[in-house]
Amino acid sequence: MQSLRNTILGHMRIGVSVRESFLVKDIYALNILNRQLCTTTGTSSDQIMARVITLVKRFDRTDATKVTEKADFQKDLSLDSLDRVELVMAIEQEFSVEIPEEKADQLKCCADVTEYIISAADHKIAEDS
């Protein structure tokens, strides 16, 4: 079917490369790959911290002016347990990591999240080696 389409488009002088159609179809996969690459050792802890803070600021139940590296999710940002679960899920999606429930309970601020993401990335690299 693809070759028929390419033949017709080529005959009409409208070229669509297979590569371009691949990129359009798999933009979601490229976003995931980008997130995974951003959690590897090539990314500094400052860049990861900035992404975490931005993510927490975009979280609809937080006051963006109160978000800092050390702002406590529960005490300073007034997030209840359900809000924290939703935030952890957003972090997992953004950084393509899985955070076990017992570890998620220990994440109290953006600095804790950043440390966990870096350690998870380092652990994954060590496993792959």
TrEMBL record:
UniProt GO cellular component terms: mitochondrion
Annotated metabolic or biological route of this protein: Lipid metabolism; fatty acid biosynthesis
A Pfam match: PP-binding
Entry keyword annotation includes Methyltransferase: no
Keywords: Electron transport, Fatty acid biosynthesis, Fatty acid metabolism, Lipid biosynthesis, Lipid metabolism, Phosphopantetheine, Phosphoprotein, Respiratory chain, Transport
Span of domain Carrier: 46-121
Top-rank taxon, per record: Eukaryota
Keyword Phosphoprotein among record annotations: yes
GO MF annotations, alphabetized: acyl binding; acyl carrier activity
PANTHER family assigned to the protein according to its UniProt record, in alphabetical order: ACYL CARRIER PROTEIN, ACYL CARRIER PROTEIN 3, MITOCHONDRIAL
HAMAP family: Acyl_carrier
Family: Belongs to the acyl carrier protein (ACP) family.
Role of this protein: Carrier of the growing fatty acid chain in fatty acid biosynthesis. May be involved in the synthesis of short and medium chain fatty acids. Accessory and non-catalytic subunit of the mitochondrial membrane respiratory chain NADH dehydrogenase (Complex I), which functions in the transfer of electrons from NADH to the respiratory chain.
Quaternary context: Complex I is composed of at least 49 different subunits.
Name recorded for this polypeptide: Acyl carrier protein
